[in-house]
Design a protein that fits this description.
By secondary structure, the protein is α/β, with parallel strands linked by helices. It has six helices and seven strands. A seven-stranded mixed beta sheet has the order 3-2-1-4-5-7-6, sandwiched between helices. The structure holds S-adenosylmethionine.
């Protein structure tokens, strides 16, 4: 008798993809990290504030250096292998961070828990980004804020279509969609954008939003 295998959900596919990428992630990212990402991440230093903070899609913990001292931070990721690497980095840095495996599309926190919710280069890979951003809206306090560093589909029509064309290839290789309309998704989830800065044309952007 043939056993029917249930097809994997998009979230399971994403999780497996990042489990596979995790051991090579830091190496893959090293050149861009040195050239641009590190200075972009530095923006978090002055903006992550409050009593309770949540980082989503923590990956290998590249933002740990930007955490304010003595902060009470919870950091989640879908991929257990990414979380394991982040845990090692936290140990080396002697950082007190509450690391948990969790899906941003289904957060296990009560409403209005956090003062700051933040993520870097994450909503390109979350299967349903609007659902994830709505969850962040739910767990953020009314006076809290959302900080995002994200790459997205350029607004230039021809370039945008070129990104659409390349997307399946890049998605397979890196787990990231390069053609997400992230600004529309943020607004679609209910957030009000207060700061929008173009860091690399309109492809990489820094975003601050309020509930
Ligand atoms: C491109 S990596 C970015 C990692 C890190 N934020 C950085 O800046 O280096 C995207 C991360 O988002 C995580 N991720 C993707 N979908 C997720 C979801 N639904 N919930 C939580 N994390 C997710 C992936 O496992 C991966 O670690």
């Amino acid at each position: 008798m043939r056993s029917e295998r249930k097809p994997l959900s998009p979230t399971e596919i994403t999780c497996r993809r990042y489990d596979r990428i995790a051991p090579f992630y830091d190496l893959m990212q090293a050149p861009v990290e040195m050239l641009r990402f590190r200075s972009w991440r530095d923006r978090l230093k002055s903006r992550v504030a409050g009593k309770r903070m949540l980082e989503v899609g923590v990956g290998t913990g590249k933002n740990f250096a930007c955490y304010p001292p003595n902060a009470r931070i919870t950091a989640i990721d879908l991929s257990p292998t990414m979380i394991a690497r982040a845990r090692k980095r936290a140990e080396v840095l002697r950082l007190n961070v509450d690391l948990r495996q969790m899906d941003v599309q289904q957060l296990d926190f009560p409403d209005h828990t956090f003062d700051t919710v933040f993520a870097t280069f994450v909503f390109c890979s979350v299967p349903d980004p609007i659902l994830g951003l709505r969850e962040l809206y739910r767990v953020c306090r009314d006076e809290g804020r959302l900080l995002l560093l994200e790459h997205m589909r350029p607004e230039h029509p021809l370039l945008g279509r070129f990104f659409d064309f390349l997307n399946p290839l890049i998605l397979r290789a890196t787990g990231a969609n390069i053609n997400r309309r992230t600004i529309d998704n943020i607004c679609g989830a209910g957030w009000k954008i207060e700061v929008l800065r173009n860091l690399a044309s309109d492809i990489v952007r820094w975003i601050e939003a309020k509930p």
